[in-house]
Design brief:
With 467 residues, the chain is an alpha/beta fold. 38% of the residues lie in helices and 13% in strands. Helix 12 (340-354) runs parallel beside helix 13 (380-399).
Length: 467
């Protein structure tokens, strides 16, 4: 494995503001859409009332404990930490003329703490949340005015942090809006396809405007998009299965095509036409979309299969997508299929398609960890999962794929996105908190902590090919 990872490879981890920070109304923060989803992105939308509480309100209290956590990340040797800015900390309702200084100051402190250890921030502008005020008063991304509000927010943080943050992402897993529209674009779950794709179009235009603003304000910086890498295989070699697989992969690759190529592909025009989907696209929008991203980032947890006759098969649910299980793969205890080779395949697919640098910004294994009597946590299952995926990243690099870095999902235990659980743990660092919100919040190093430290220190040379 030695020598396959580039010398300046960005090793690190990834978290999201709404899953770690807590302090959900501290220092002037407004309510976000995430604050109204106490049971996760597929749970009911619940208005907040005085005295109520949810697990994400405190999460792992990163808002107050970040110096301790950054020090632990530095001990592992992190070169990079991906996190997000909570939009409603900066513009509490979303439509204010002036930003909230207390919110801006928090991220100044966070980025300064990272800089002490030489950890580069990779910052997502919108990670599964937006100010609820924009949903309540404008209908979320269904209203074209939200584009302007997002651009104001993006320009505000670019100007504020231009000397501290050089790597940016626009929207987290932007393609998931097709499956969880409230989380993605602030629309009701029952919205029709025309409404959802119109909101997605507004988001794509806003993303392009943010790219343009970043290029103007942070000229030495880089800004990318972020996809949920839901790569699918045909279940059989039947031509019908192959064609259906191509169609379903295009459902999510469309988002990369627009942001990397700068225009709507012809296959989407046919899809809109044949499904009666009406999307208002102005000539100004078309010009704006030509401002394309610098790199492609994506999450990868599992692959799945596609058949033209799905009724006879049970489906396996990942974080967002329903997929036909692959009979050749094992599954995690949450039913997510484990496919390290799929990561190599996906890296090659994306690089062949876009010829842009790639960044793996989420990959990890959710599992129920057990704390032993002596306080140790032997998470060899997590080590094996990550090792096998990173071996395949090295193979993709050897294939000629340009990979910028790898930030594992959840380097510290956090509140899961799908169901707001603490018991589904991803971290190298254990956090003492349970699904009911009980626990000391104390941090504890797992066995994987030391394993990942060795991987980073050796630049991947310590990985083992277990095939």
């Amino acid at each position: 494995m030695n020598g396959k990872f580039p010398q300046h490879f960005l090793w690190g981890g990834a978290v999201a503001a709404n899953q770690v920070e807590g302090a959900y109304q501290a220092d002037g923060k407004g309510l976000s859409t995430s604050d109204l989803q106490p049971q996760g992105i597929f749970g009911a939308i619940t208005p907040r009332t005085a005295g109520d509480s949810g697990i994400k309100d405190v999460a792992i209290d990163f808002y107050h404990r970040y110096p301790e956590d950054i020090a632990l990340f530095a001990e592992m040797g992190f070169k990079c930490l991906r996190t997000s800015i909570a939009w409603s900390r900066i513009f509490p309702q979303g439509d204010e003329e002036m930003p909230n200084e207390a919110g801006l100051a928090f991220y100044d402190r966070l980025f300064d703490e990272m800089a002490k250890y030489g950890i580069q921030p990779l910052i997502t502008l919108s990670h599964y949340e937006m100010p609820y005020g924009l949903v309540k008063h404008y209908g979320g991304w269904g209203d074209r005015r939200t584009i302007d509000f997002f651009e104001r927010y993006a320009r505000t943080v670019f100007e504020r942090y231009k000397h501290k943050v050089k790597h940016w992402l626009t929207f987290n897993e932007i393609n998931m809006s097709l499956h969880a529209p409230f989380t993605g674009v602030g629309l009701p779950q029952e919205s029709d396809k025309s409404a959802i794709y119109q909101a997605i179009h507004h988001q794509l235009v806003a993303s392009a405007r943010a790219v343009k603003a970043c290029h103007e304000i942070v000229p030495e910086g880089k800004i990318g998009n972020m996809l949920l890498g839901g790569i699918l295989y045909p279940l059989s070699c039947k031509p019908e299965d192959l064609l259906e697989t191509q169609r379903q992969n295009r459902d999510w690759l469309f988002f990369g095509d627009v942001q990397a190529r700068g225009y709507y592909p012809a296959y989407m025009q046919r899809f809109f036409r044949e499904n009666g989907i009406q999307v208002a696209i102005t000539e100004e929008d078309r010009q704006t979309l030509r401002e394309t991203i610098d790199f492609i980032s994506f999450s990868y947890y599992m692959s799945g299969c596609v058949t033209a006759d799905p009724a006879q098969y049970e489906t396996a649910r990942g974080n967002i997508l329903d997929m036909v299980p692959n009979p050749h793969l094992a599954s995690s205890e949450w039913g997510w299929q484990i496919d390290p080779i799929g990561l190599r395949y996906l890296l090659n697919v994306l690089y062949d398609r876009y010829q842009k640098p790639l960044f793996i910004v989420e990959n990890g294994l959710g599992a129920k960890d057990r704390v032993e009597a002596d306080g140790s946590i032997h998470d060899d299952y997590r080590i094996n999962y990550l090792n096998d995926h990173l071996v395949q990243v090295a193979e993709a690099i050897d294939d000629g794929v340009e990979v910028m870095g790898y930030t594992s999902w959840g380097p510290i235990d956090l509140v899961s996105a799908s169901k707001a659980e603490m018991s589904k743990r991803y971290g190298f660092i254990h956090v003492d908190r349970d699904d009911a919100g009980n626990g000391s919040l104390d941090r504890r190093r797992k066995k994987s902590f030391y394993w990942y430290r060795d991987v980073i220190h050796s630049n991947g040379a310590s990985l083992k090919d277990r095939r």
